[in-house]
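Reply to dn_fold:

You asked what the input looked like. This is it:
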Amino acid sequence: MPNRPYIPRMFRMDPSVQDLFPDFKGKGEEELRELFSFETQATLMINIFDEVVEKLDDMDSVINLLQKTAERHRQMGISAEVFRKIEEPFQITLKNCLGDRYTEKIEGIYLTFVKLVFDMMCEVMADDGS
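and this is what came back:
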C-alpha cells in the first residue's frame, strides 16, 4: 500500500479533522493504513492535483474540476475552514517526498500551485449560493 503521510499528519495536526471521516473516527495511524477507504481517500486527494496539472492548458476545465470537487465537499458539510487544514500537511508531504529536489524555486512553485488550488476550492465552499 503506498504511503500517503499527509492524511495522518493532518490528523495529528488537528485531530478534529479525523472525526469528519466516519470510517476513520477513533482509529490510530496504523489501523488507518490498513483501511481500504483510507487508501481510497488518499488516492482521491492526490488525483485531484494530478488532474489539475494534466489540464493546465485548459483553465476552464481546471476551474470546472475544482468547482465540482469543492461543491461535493461542501455538500458533505466540509467548510472552507476545515478544508484549509489539509493545505499545510500536504505541503510538508510534498517537501518530504521530493527530498533534495525540493529547492527554494520548487518550493515557490509548489506553494503557489497548492495555494491556487486551495483558494479556488475554498472560494466555492465559502459561497452560500446567494
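Residues 1 and 34 are 8 Å apart (CA to CA).
Hope that clears it up.
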